Prior knowledge:
Helix content: 40-55%
Distance between the termini: 57 Å
Number of domains: 3
Radius of gyration: 24 Å
Structural class: alpha/beta
Strand content: 5-15%
Low-confidence stretches: none
InterPro entries: PyrdxlP-dep_de-COase (IPR002129), PyrdxlP-dep_Trfase (IPR015424), PyrdxlP-dep_Trfase_major (IPR015421), PyrdxlP-dep_Trfase_small (IPR015422)
Protein name: Aminotransferase class V-fold PLP-dependent enzyme
CATH topology of the largest domain: Aspartate Aminotransferase, domain 2
CATH architecture of the largest domain: 3-Layer(aba) Sandwich
Oligomer: single chain
Number of strands: 11
Family: Belongs to the group II decarboxylase family.
Number of helices: 14
Strand order of the largest sheet: 1-7-6-5-4-2-3
CATH superfamily of the largest domain: Type I PLP-dependent aspartate aminotransferase-like (Major domain)
Shape: globular
Order of helices and strands: HHHHHEHEHEHEHEEEHHHEEHEEH
Largest sheet: 7 strands, mixed
Keywords: Aminotransferase, Decarboxylase, Lyase, Pyridoxal phosphate, Transferase
GO molecular function: aromatic-L-amino-acid decarboxylase activity; transaminase activity
Amino acid sequence: MPTTTPPPLAGGTTGPAALRPLLDTVLTALHEGATLRDGPLPAGGPDTVAPRTRAAAHPLIPDHGTGPHHALATLVTALAAGAADPAHPHCTAHLHTPPLALAAAADLAASALNPSMDSWDQAPAASALEADLTTTLAAEIYPHTPSPDAVITTGGTEANQLALLLARERHGPVQTICGANAHHSIARAAWLLGLPTPITLPTPHGTLDPTALTNALTEHPRPHLVVATAGTTDTGAIDPLDTIADLCTTHGAELHIDAAYGGPLLLSPTHRTLLHGLHRAHSVTLDLHKLGWQPASAGLLAVPDHHHLTPLHHHAPYLNAGDDTEAGLPDLLGRSLRTTRRPDALKIAVTLHALGRDGLADLIDRTITTAHHLADLITTTPGLDLYQRPTISTVLFRPTGATDHTVATIRRTLLNRGHAVLGRTHTAGHLWFKATLLNPHTTPHDLRTLLDLVTHATTELLTPTTHPTESDTPR
């Protein structure tokens, strides 16, 4: 017989007491790791970070365990020290948000309770909360339909795949038509679902061109599924949604709008007009681990009528027996293609409840204002060129006269030094730095420092007598 007591569990009435000291260890380790990193990401690049992380974790399966506090302190510190931290104002490369503390705290509760969202008897309260959350958010997108609905997804990629799947189930092998600005998940979803390769229209000005779309709808046989984008990953551009919806109506095409990035603008009275026409789509992707400040994952696919989700229904007697359903137990298998899945609705609901419409609008407005301030700084900084004014919170810029090779090299130099995480995108014939601003705490001083880092690295690289090293520039 075993002589030791099993480790404590996170749930039940004793779980919180067991968690409390462990959380203190975790929080201390997060602080110590961030202090060791001392920047938006660790210096030294993969050749430094990987060995250091592996050394801290070795051996991953020791013969005798090190104990919970030592394991947590060691590995959480190592992970934090080696993280790209989206909460740092110079970590701006991707649509990778710094999560709100309250959302992360709610996620802890979800992990401790561990409801599985595939049957009511595993998630009685969580399933009710999810049902209310999805209908509430769907009504934000479709305010004029009687029974809008949504399903929670792992993010924009899964939501886009579901949109194509539902269109296929309604109309057969639909021909997807999208712009070159569309997310890569559209083409991948068509491939996974056995649909024709999407017709991809050029977007030389960053958005889907109505004339090109008209020609494509005229030339190619039906059924059509047009995919528009509200917030592209390269520039944050928003397609002309109302005009595209008009064309879809004229040509009998369905419309899916990928608003993974721009969708939360609906909650801002100042900026919601950018999404005019969103409600005319047959489905809409929303992703709150972008401009919603949620820990991943927090995606949704919304539809104007709950019956549009009927094709997702699936029967597994051990999870949704017919007599249980007839007796009133909710059937959850039709709420996702996944079986076991986390109660991601909790952190979203906590955030909405805590901040309200005005609090979320303030976060969105602050973030967009910050992006415009960065654009202003770029236009007044000698030696830097701005691509265009930001539509949402993505700002593209580059050193004046620099080659694409120079831009790429400067970006990697800043990464290797641990000074800044800037994205990159190729548009208008050039490679540009991409700053995707999602941190509402970023200050004008932070932005000025970021541009100073870029201009300093540019000067070093373009001055023949200078040979920059990883430690040349202070943080």
